[in-house]
Amino acid sequence: MRVMAIDYGDQRIGIAVSDAMRMLCGDAFTLQEWNMERAVSRIAQEVSARGVDTLVLGLPKNMDGSEGPRAEKSREFAALLKEVTGIEPVL
What predicted TM-score, i.e. pTM, was given to this entire model? Predict the structure, then answer.
């Protein structure tokens, strides 16, 4: 199985998928999507097509370690990913 790492942004979402041995990046690409639901749908398609069993999602924090508005959006995105894919993202 593979790992998919996700860097969530408002306009673009960076995605990297591991190789089958989970050691190297097998593929990396960017989604151009601003709508969260459509982005999750597209990611769910990629998860299914590529045999991904682990999702890793970036959780941005402030310099003092606190969480701000971007972290809140990432948590919302993670909850939607779990709902649609059935996989709990690692933040």
Answer: 0.92
